[in-house]
Amino acid sequence: xxxxxxxxxAAAASLPTTLRQDLDRVRDALGDSLPAEIPPGALARAxxxxxxxxxxxxxxxxGQTRNVITDHDAxxxxxxxxxxxxxxxxx
Length: 91
Fold this sequence. Notes:
By secondary structure, the chain is mostly helical. 57% of the residues lie in helices and 0% in strands. Helix 1 packs across helix 2 and helix 2 runs antiparallel to helix 3.
């Protein structure tokens, strides 16, 4: 952390061929806005974190954790920290 580099997860799984092809299309669509040195695995983890964040916000907005969780801030903080670690931003 602090080096400007993403940490590679200890157990980085190989990507299915179809997902790798999809990520190549994403990279092509983004062009120069996505640095070439970002590996496909890091891009997949970033997309996973984005969808998880979207889900967490949706759950909060539509009360899906009502009567289940009392400390919504703690749940959101825990979720975002887990996703930061997932993409290599925290260690």
